[in-house]
Each structure stands twice: as C-alpha cells, then as structure tokens.
C-alpha cells in the first residue's frame, strides 16, 4: 500500500468520521461542512503554523460544499484515493420535524399539520475494540507523518470550538510551535509505530506479517472478551439459579416454621382450655360469695358486702385456683381472728387464720373450693379489674399466661410464699412485655392513657386507668402467634432482661433501669433490703411484688426461662 495515495483531506476526513462516530453515531452534511469551514478559517488566519507541504496543497483543486465553501483536494488524488476508515460512507436523507401549523380537516375540526425538514446525514457506526486499534495503527503507519501534527491540531480545534463532545476521547498535548493538538494523532505519539514501520523497510519483518499478527492479536483479544462475557453470563445465571434455590429453601423453611408454630400455638390453646376454670366452678364461687355475705350479715347483724378479687375476678382462674374474697362491714369491722371465730361459729369447716401475713386472711374450704377471705382490701379489687381489662383486649394474653404459668409450675418457681414468683408477679411481667418489648405493642398502657381515666384514688395512691375506651384489636398490627410470643417471652426473661439493674414497671408500661430504692430490712436494721428482681405494683408504684425472691431463687427463675426457651426452639425446629 503506497503512502502517496493518502492526501491531507482524505486522511482528515477519515479522522473526522472516526471522531464523530464515537458519541454521535451519525453526522449531517451540514456539520461536516461546518468542520471544513472552521478548518479553512484556521489556515487562513494562521497559515504559518502549519507544515509547508500542507499549505501548498490548498492552492491546487477545489470542491464545493453545500454552503459554497471550497474544500481543497491535493494533486495526489490523480493517482487514486483510498480510506483507512473501515466502512462505506454514503449520504442518506432524513426527515426531521421542524414545527407545523393548524388547519381544518374535512369535518371542520382543528388539527395540527406537522412539517419536516430534509437533512443529508452520514450514518456512522462507532468503532469498538480491535477496530479502533486497527484504525489508529493504520493511521500511524500509512498516513504520511508530515500530516500528523496538522491533523492533530485540526482535530483538537474541532473538539474545542465546533463539536459539543470530546470525539473519541484522549488527552491533548502541546506541539513545539505551542499549538494545542489531539495527542493520539500527533507525530511524536505515533513515532514508535513509525519506527516499527522503518524496521520493516530494512527487512526485519514484512509489514503485511506484522499487520496480520496485529489482526490475529486483535481477533484473539476479541475472542477473549467474548469468552469473558460468556463466563460472566454463566456466572450470572448460576448466581440467579442459586438465589432462586435459596429463596425456595427459605420459603420451605418459612412454611415448615409456620406449620410447627401453628402446632405449638394449637397446643397452647388446648392447654388453656384444659386449665381454665369451668363455668360451673365460676358459678360455685359466686354462690359461695353470696352465701358468705348472707351468713356474715346475719351473724354480725350488719350490712356486709363480699367482693371477689384475684384470679376469679381477673379472668385468669384455673381449675386449681383459690377464690379470694374481701369483706366490707358497714358499722363494725372485726379483726381477722374475730372473723375466723365467726366463721367457725357459723359452721364453716377447716377454718384457719393467718393474722401476720402482709394481707391477713382467713382460709376455709367450701364445696371443694379453697377460699381466702380478707377484710377491706380495695387495692386487690382494683388490681384484678385492671388485669381483667388487659385480658379482654387481646386473646393472646390469656393463652400465653396459662402456658407461662404451666412452665413456672413445672420448674418449681411459682410460689410467692417460698421466695419465688407469685402469679401476680408473673402477670405483671407478661403485661409489660406485651406493652414494651413487643413491636408493635400488643397491649396499650392504660395508666398512661390521656383519653378517659376513672379518677380512682385509694388512700394516697392514684389507681386511675382508662377503663372505658374500646381497645379491641389494638395489637392487630403485630401478627405474632401465641406460640412465637411464648418463645420470645422466655428468651427475653432468660437471656435479655437484666435482673440486677432493671425493673418491670407496669405503671409506665415499660422495662427500664431501676428507679426505686428498696426499703429498709426492718425497723431496727435500716440497711436496704436486697432486691435481686424488681417487679413493681401498678398502683403502689414503690412496692416490689417479687421482693421476697432470694438471689439463688432468681438464678433458678432465669434458668427456668432459658430451659423453656431451648425446649420451645427445639420444638419449633422439628
């Protein structure tokens, strides 16, 4: 291939097409004319800045552009021309919208008539990979080096002043005459490629062999890129298959977990039904209350009222629950021993009095029911009504309560009189857990409500709470099943709750750092009593209803919840 067949204009056109094909994909004849109009102005305004051979060619032959500008062709065109741009270039006509006007159609309706402008466009395809490298190699080797700096200056001028893009990219450089140029087209940049060409001329290697080798390298590079793309596609498909497999496994595990959770929840419902006191037992307790009220009224000849509190009033009574009564007298209030004597005189059997308990009581058995009677305990009634209100809001509370009580019984930690947890303390722990730890909350904080409080005071204690608002469905935003709630409850009080530093505060409906100091041990021993666990009363806010628990017993309580948690997790994984 003879280098004399490439003139400045032909080579410049090739480079312009190479530049425009990068960002534009097509170029109009008008844009091409603007390029040469700018180039002509550069030669006219700065003729001494360009190489002399290039300047001499301008005066030879002319070619009219669509706008009357002259494009000069050098005399080498008589020997024939060639191109290093590897695609056929043809001018195509393209219709471009250029506004329009409104007119009336045959029905008299106003319609918009668009107008179009016909543009002459040169479709271009961007050179990629080995094609671009091949173009730049042939430019460096085949185009005469006397043109390189001129083309580099002209291309940079078009980048800076005519085009709104950066062409095919690449940095700029400064030539020895101080002009800015596109580095990849400059003579110095392509010197190494030209040097290789010089070695070819001395017989070291034929240009055709090197050109063939380059083509082979480019083809190998293209093949490797294709293999890499295929490998990436295989990896993508494998990852997609693995993700689908993992999602399927996850769905299957969720289905299995839901099935196991349903089995545990169903067992809890059956346990509740088997433990809860029957309607007949509740009727018997109510009849026993009425009988006691009649008998005491006749015996003391006074207006006597007997109220039920405790589990039978709160709705958490089981088959083995004791009935708790408190007696109100109108005129005369007997002591607990006097009340016990009166019950024996009336004819009640197995009467026992406990006068030195925190709440003095008289116990007896009637119709197979163990009954504890106290004198004027309004706080117990209020506590029972509060618990009953919570129990009516969400059925999961009652279901969890019977399972928790069964767990406490099995582990021997349900006994307030022997230094463990009372049923009342367990109830407070469950209520506050459902208020504070469950997210979203399942139970509201009735004592913190700003809606309708009952304004109840017993002594100096504020016993008010919202008892009129209908909170049914309050916990519907938390769909956790009763079985999962039981597991979470045991996990929290087995592993999370800090027995030494935190308190269960039903008044606030929160589990928080301790805010109350323990009272003195005795009147004579003013040292603070040890509270290894703190579960506060909802109304007497400074009273710890689990204050009798010893340190070793609290460790057993914690371990019992941990054992139950492990068992429940194992049951839910089977």
From TrEMBL:
Top class in the EC scheme: transferase
Family per record: Belongs to the DNA polymerase type-B-like family.
Cellular localization per UniProt: Cytoplasm
Keywords: Cytoplasm, Magnesium, Metal-binding, Transferase
Record's GO cellular component terms: cytoplasm
Cofactor(s) recorded in Swiss-Prot or TrEMBL: Mg(2+); Mn(2+)
Protein name (record): polynucleotide adenylyltransferase
Basic and acidic residues compositional bias, start-end: 222-247
SUPFAM superfamilies found in the cross-reference section: Nucleotidyltransferase, PAP/OAS1 substrate-binding domain
Primary localisation category: cytoplasm
């Amino acid at each position: 291939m003879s280098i004399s067949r490439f003139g400045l204009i032909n080579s410049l056109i090739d480079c312009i097409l190479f530049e425009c094909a990068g960002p534009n994909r097509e170029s109009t004849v008008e844009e091409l004319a603007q390029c040469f109009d700018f180039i002509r102005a550069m030669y006219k305004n700065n003729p001494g800045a360009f190489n002399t051979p290039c300047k001499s060619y301008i005066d030879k032959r002319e070619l009219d552009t669509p706008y009357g500008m002259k494009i000069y062709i050098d005399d080498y065109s008589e020997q024939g021309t060639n191109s290093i741009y590897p695609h056929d270039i043809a001018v195509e006509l393209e219709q471009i919208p250029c506004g329009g006007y409104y007119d009336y159609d045959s029905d008299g309706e106003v319609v918009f008539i668009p107008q179009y402008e016909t543009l002459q466009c040169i479709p271009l395809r961007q050179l990629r990979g080995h094609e671009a490298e091949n173009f730049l190699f042939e430019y460096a080797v085949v185009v005469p080096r006397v043109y390189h700096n001129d083309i580099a200056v002209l291309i940079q001028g078009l980048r800076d002043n005519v085009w709104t893009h950066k062409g095919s990219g690449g940095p700029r450089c400064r030539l020895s005459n101080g002009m800015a140029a596109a580095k990849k087209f400059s003579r110095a940049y392509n010197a190494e490629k030209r040097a290789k060409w010089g070695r070819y001329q001395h017989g070291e290697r034929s240009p055709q062999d090197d050109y063939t080798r380059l083509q082979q390298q480019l083809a190998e590079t293209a093949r490797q890129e294709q293999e890499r793309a295929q490998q990436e596609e295989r990896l993508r498909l494998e990852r997609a298959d693995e993700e689908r497999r993992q999602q399927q496994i996850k769905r299957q595990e969720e289905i299995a977990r839901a099935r196991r959770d349903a089995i545990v929840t169903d067992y809890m419902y059956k346990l509740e039904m088997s433990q809860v006191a029957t309607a007949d037992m509740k009727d018997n307790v109510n009849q026993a209350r009425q009988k006691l009220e009649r008998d005491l009224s006749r015996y003391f000849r006074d207006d006597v009222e007997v109220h039920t509190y405790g589990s039978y009033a709160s709705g958490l009574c089981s088959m083995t629950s004791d009935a708790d009564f408190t007696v109100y007298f109108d005129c005369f209030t007997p002591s607990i021993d006097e009340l016990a004597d009166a019950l024996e005189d009336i004819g009640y059997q197995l009467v026992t009095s406990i006068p030195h308990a925190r709440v003095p009581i008289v116990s007896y058995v009637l119709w197979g029911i163990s009954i504890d009677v106290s004198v004027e305990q309004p706080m117990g009634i209020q506590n029972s009504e509060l618990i009953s209100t919570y129990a009516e809001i969400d059925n999961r509370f009652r279901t969890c309560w019977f399972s928790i009580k069964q767990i406490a019984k099995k582990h021997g930690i349900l006994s307030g009189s022997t230094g463990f947890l009372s049923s009342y303390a367990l109830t407070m722990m469950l209520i506050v857990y459902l208020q504070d730890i469950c997210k979203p909350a399942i139970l509201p904080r009735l004592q913190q409500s700003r809606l309708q409080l009952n304004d109840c005071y017993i002594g100096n204690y504020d016993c008010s709470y919202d008892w009129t608002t209908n909170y049914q469905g309050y916990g519907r935003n938390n769909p956790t099943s009763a079985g999962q709630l039981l597991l979470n409850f045991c996990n929290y009080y087995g592993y999370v709750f800090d027995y030494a530093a935190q308190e269960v505060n039903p008044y606030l409906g929160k589990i928080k750092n301790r805010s109350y100091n323990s009272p003195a041990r005795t009147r004579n021993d003013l040292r603070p009593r040890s509270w290894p666990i703190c579960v506060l009363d909802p109304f007497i806010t400074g009273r710890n209803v689990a204050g009798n628990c010893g340190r070793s017993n609290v460790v057993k309580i914690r371990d019992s919840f941990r054992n139950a948690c492990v068992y429940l997790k194992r049951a839910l994984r089977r």
